[in-house]
């Protein structure tokens, strides 16, 4: 279980870095914010890429699949806290399904040959 909790923490931080970085581009283009928003956004996206390499997975594709489940949950939390859009029952059901899949991928006894 320590692997599960440390992975959730790592992927949550990774998702926050990616979402913040992408949001800076969203804010610049869609919300007409100053292009200077791209500087911290680009740094945040670089942090995202670095954090993803710290994944406990030996395979990039598996790391991305694990990350995807966490990313979906954190995206809905971001939407709720930053954009004030409360997730509905369908958001929660879909995120739960994705998170369950990510947990199976993380905890399964994969064949490491």
What do you see in this structure?
This protein has 113 residues and is mainly α. It is built from four helices and no strands. It has one domain (2-107). Helix 1 runs antiparallel to helix 2 and helix 3 runs antiparallel to helix 4 (89-107). The longest helix is centred in the N-terminal third of the chain and has 29 residues, at 2-30. The mean pLDDT is 89. It holds the Pfam family UPF0060. It is a multi-pass membrane protein. It comes from Bombella pollinis. Keywords: Cell membrane, Membrane, Transmembrane, Transmembrane helix.
List strands and helices in order, with pairings:
Elements: H1 2-30, H2 38-53, H3 60-81, H4 89-107
Helix pairs in contact: 1-2, 1-3, 3-4
- Rg computed from alpha carbons, rounded to a whole number of angstroms: 15 Å
Q: Please mark out the parts with pLDDT under 50 across 5 or more consecutive residues, or reply none.
A: none
Tell me the strand percentage band.
under 5%
**Structure summary, number of beta strands:** 0
Number of domains: 1
Shape: flat
Organism: Bombella pollinis
InterPro entries: EmrE-like, UPF0060
Pfam families: UPF0060
Family: Belongs to the UPF0060 family.
Brief rundown of the structure:
This protein is mainly alpha-helical and 113 residues long.
